[in-house]
Recover the amino acids of this structure.
């Protein structure tokens, strides 16, 4: 009766080109972790899961096997391998069983896009959509920002190569994909930065 | 446009990133209160022209509630502060008085 259902990302294969290209990143493991971020046991569990140190306010840290983004004063987003996510949630849950903390695998409730391109192209795509100061010296690698993308909630950060990663809810994946693709369309670069 | 500083995540954002939550520092009157008290709790609002204390939520951001003291006429924000307070802290009142010397905290 039961057949194994293959996990698919929200917009598998979605891609567009322009002054900045947009690509859906495929299956990505994402874990929401809520708890006391100042707690040492929590920092240790996060380090064990991702290899990344605890991020400062509105920062993202990169580790060997994952990234840790600061989402709010009591919330982190762990970006890990999709297949590893359930095991990491289990490890986090058992490591934090004595405290008021919660780890949930939200991989399949989210979508992730990559916005890549020459120079400040990706930056300009995001600056068109979010009410955020995206000047190169105001928002750089290591920063993460939770905000809105046109009409929906989203978050983004800059990778070391200057490309942006955008995270949004899966239910609005098509909207966000189209939004990024249109904002990055050829001939529409504001060339502001 | 209204520019607010979220005291929870430190973001300086514009109005569309936040959501207003009405008047701040209301005292709730529940089941054992008189009809007049309950009606006041539900409906009676200050609605001043000038300094006003409001609740705001950083809806498209960290998701936390906070308080803001601002002028309803000029949209000037005097201070934003923690939601976990029953009345405006002294430094917020001082910040308002510095800009509006004639203003008095309403009873």
């Amino acid at each position: 009766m039961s057949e194994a259902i293959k996990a698919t990302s929200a917009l598998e294969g979605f891609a567009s080109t322009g002054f900045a290209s947009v690509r859906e990143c495929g299956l990505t493991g994402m874990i929401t972790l809520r708890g006391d971020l100042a707690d040492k046991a929590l920092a240790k569990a996060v380090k064990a899961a991702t290899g990344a140190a605890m991020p400062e306010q509105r920062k993202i840290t990169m580790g060997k096997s994952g990234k840790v983004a600061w989402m709010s004063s009591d919330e982190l987003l762990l970006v890990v391998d999709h297949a590893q996510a359930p095991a990491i949630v289990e490890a986090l849950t058992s490591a934090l069983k004595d405290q008021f903390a919660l780890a949930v695998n939200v991989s399949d409730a989210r979508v992730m896009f990559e916005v890549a391109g020459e120079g400040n192209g990706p930056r300009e795509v995001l600056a068109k959509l979010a009410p955020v100061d995206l000047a190169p010296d105001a928002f750089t690698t290591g920063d993460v920002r939770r905000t809105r993308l046109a009409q929906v909630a989203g978050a983004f950060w800059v990778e070391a190569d200057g490309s942006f990663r955008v995270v949004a809810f899966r239910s609005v994946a098509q909207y966000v994909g189209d939004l990024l693709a249109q904002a990055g369309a050829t001939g529409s670069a504001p060339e502001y930065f | 446009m209204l520019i607010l500083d979220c005291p929870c995540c430190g973001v300086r954002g514009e109005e569309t990133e936040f959501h207003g939550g009405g008047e701040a520092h209301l005292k709730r009157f529940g089941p054992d209160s008189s009809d007049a008290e309950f009606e006041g709790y539900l409906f009676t609002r200050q609605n001043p022209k000038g300094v006003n204390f409001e609740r705001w939520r950083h809806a498209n951001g960290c998701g936390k509630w906070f308080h803001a003291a601002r002028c309803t006429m000029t949209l000037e924000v005097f201070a934003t502060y923690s939601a976990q307070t029953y009345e405006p802290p002294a430094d917020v009142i001082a910040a308002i008085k510095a800009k509006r010397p004639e203003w008095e905290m309403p009873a």
User: Anything to note?
Assistant: Chain B has two helices and six strands.
